[in-house]
Amino acid sequence: MTDEVEKYSRRRRRLLVGMACAFLIWQFAGLEIFNDFAGGDRRFIRIVSLLAFAFWAGVLVWLVAGKAMRGASASTQTALNDELVRANRARAFAAGYWVMLVVAGIAFAASMFFDIPANEAAQIILVSGVVAPMFAFAHLEGQGA
């Protein structure tokens, strides 16, 4: 059973990291910062952003539909939602909160030296609050902590 639990745990970690990266790409591709990199032609950035969104949304629908756990025994599903996993979720949520506060502080400090539009600062802060817990949970699960 531990091999099966480890297999599903590994899959969950990979999916979380992939979803976090896709969410970052999707959200940051819409920022005005990329206008300078694109040289005025944003078609490539839009395509990459659309592909990242499609991956993120597809995996999210797949997870919500319960397809990720298809074939797992009841004891495996119980092991994948035990006290340690719930504690790791809580720790990841707290880490996301602190990362979001730090990013907000950095954005506030940087706004004193650079012109940062409020909508972009808010987007960066919110994206950090979404992505940081995903990375933190994957890290904590990988450690087995």
Question: What's the quick description here?
Answer:
This protein is mainly α and 145 residues long.
Topology:
Blueprint: H1 2-28, H2 33-38, H3 43-64, H4 74-79, H5 83-111, H6 118-143
Helix pairs in contact: 1-3, 1-6, 5-6
What would you note in describing this structure?
With 145 residues, the chain is mostly helical. It has one domain. The protein is 80% helix and 0% strand. The chain contains 6 helices and no strands. It has helices at 2-28, 33-38, 43-64, 74-79, 83-111, 118-143. The mean pLDDT is 85.
Radius of gyration: 18 Å
> How many individual domains?
1
The termini sit apart by 20 Å
Show unreliable segments. Answer: none
* Relative helix content: over 70%
From the structure above, extract its key features:
single chain; 145 residues; mainly alpha
